[in-house]
């Protein structure tokens, strides 16, 4: 078994009179028969026959709870308190309400601490099988944990009190014994530490001190309500403080001269006094404690290029309308800074001009926006990042992986002549006519004959500020241009050659047939008698 450090071994057995007040009535808290205090916890032993519930209530009246034994250190504290005295004392263990019987295979056998948890690094169970009903735990002189019915009477109980901090023992003084009393009623003079609200009594001086927070740093220390130094038996002692600090209101503690000073921003210790100071941009007021703002714009002209605005503790530079602040300097604001252009913008005198990226053109219906544009008969489409959802400019159709220009002139939109161009078309009128509604032609009136007219294959001249008309959308989808397969071309060529040969053969056959009957055609093919007959030879005759 691991032992406590030597400093933890001293144990004060308190109130050796082991009175056992009657049960069940307990008008005031019990006095412990023994107690031990460490830095953050105290343990106390109470004798008196009580059931588990009454023992738990007795610990709670003193501000604690039944003892938890989570390590061998706590177990050694029990051994020092018992001092080999026989009997069984209640611990802070009871069977969990969700269980009806104990579980011997579990580390805590289904029990839980009064702190409503089952965390532990140590157990010391006496051998036992499963037990059912309301069960609680006692510890014996042999430090074994035993299961008992909660309504049984144990010989006593152990309490635990936990604290965040503690007061040390007062320095020993020869001939001045000190007696301490804890909040839970333990008395003695050999504690290792004292919990908050403990009282230290020095009978020889008639002095009582209390362990309380100092009121400034929140630390625990010994003090009393009456100010001034504690009496030492003879004379009138007086406390003093080192340089940089002064006596506190109690006449014993030391504090900074700036504690409670009326300085608005900063306090600087000066000997046993203080001086108030202010941040940069402020100056100390006439009262010596408040801070007033400096008007930097008025005191230092030229701080800013254009406008200077004073602020609390400083200033701010701003620019005139039409300018904006860029890296601490005022620059003339670009018209494009707030322009609603969709893609690009260019500053021009008196305003801005919207532009578009490559592959786009300004939308004639909305100059701020851009639309797809192609200046050739074929262009690649604009697709999303996955190569899908492809789009073509207006006037083009998607054919496989290319945007192909629609030849609107094949759709007979124009009344007379038509010129196709990428993405659109243009109608023309012959001499003596003018273009109407962009596609029709009307004869020129006498007044119009003197003005320039739209000749054939000449584009219509639009008057100034006339918006360019939108290319009419085709009423039907034009047929898709199909390229002939090389095999088809070869077939056509072979067919043409065969057709020509067939025609030659047919002509030759007909010529032979005309010359096949000499008896009936001697007048054409008489040969040597042709002069006698007076006939003229036929040029297409029988030269062959």
UniProtKB/TrEMBL annotation:
Ranges of compositional bias, category Pro residues: 464-477
Pfam families assigned: EGF_CA, EGF_Tme5, Lectin_C, THBD
GO molecular function, one term: transmembrane signaling receptor activity
Classification via CDD domains: EGF_CA
Domain C-type lectin residues, every copy: 38-151
InterPro entries, per the entry: C-type_lectin-like, C-type_lectin-like/link_sf, C-type_lectin_domain, CTDL_fold, EGF, EGF-like_Ca-bd_dom, EGF-type_Asp/Asn_hydroxyl_site, EGF_Ca-bd_CS
Predominant location category: membrane
Alphabetical keyword list: Disulfide bond, EGF-like domain, Glycoprotein, Lectin, Membrane, Phosphoprotein, Proteoglycan, Repeat, Signal, Transmembrane, Transmembrane helix
Spans annotated as Disordered: 450-478
Gene3D superfamilies (alphabetical): Laminin (2.10.25.10), Mannose-Binding Protein A, subunit A (3.10.100.10)
Species classification: Eukaryota, Metazoa, Chordata, Craniata, Vertebrata
Membrane topology: Single-pass type I membrane protein
EGF-like domain sequence ranges: 293-331, 405-442
Physiological role: Endothelial cell receptor that plays a critical role in regulating several physiological processes including hemostasis, coagulation, fibrinolysis, inflammation, and angiogenesis. Acts as a cofactor for thrombin activation of protein C/PROC on the surface of vascular endothelial cells leading to initiation of the activated protein C anticoagulant pathway. Also accelerates the activation of the plasma carboxypeptidase B2/CPB2, which catalyzes removal of C-terminal basic amino acids from its substrates including kinins or anaphylatoxins leading to fibrinolysis inhibition.
SMART domains: CLECT (SM00034), EGF (SM00181), EGF_CA (SM00179)
Signal peptide positions on this chain: 1-19
Quaternary organization: Interacts with ITGAL, ITGAM and ITGB2. Interacts with thrombin/F2; this interaction switches the specificity of thrombin from a procoagulant to an anticoagulant and antifibrinolytic protease. Interacts with ANGP1 and ANGP2; these interactions significantly inhibit the generation of activated PC and TAFIa/CPB2 by the thrombin/thrombomodulin complex. Interacts with PF4; this interaction enhances generation of activated protein C. Interacts with HMGB1; this interaction inhibits HMGB1 inflammatory activity.
Location in or out of the cell: Membrane
Gene Ontology cellular component annotations, sorted alphabetically: membrane
Transmembrane segment boundaries: 488-511
Protein name: Thrombomodulin
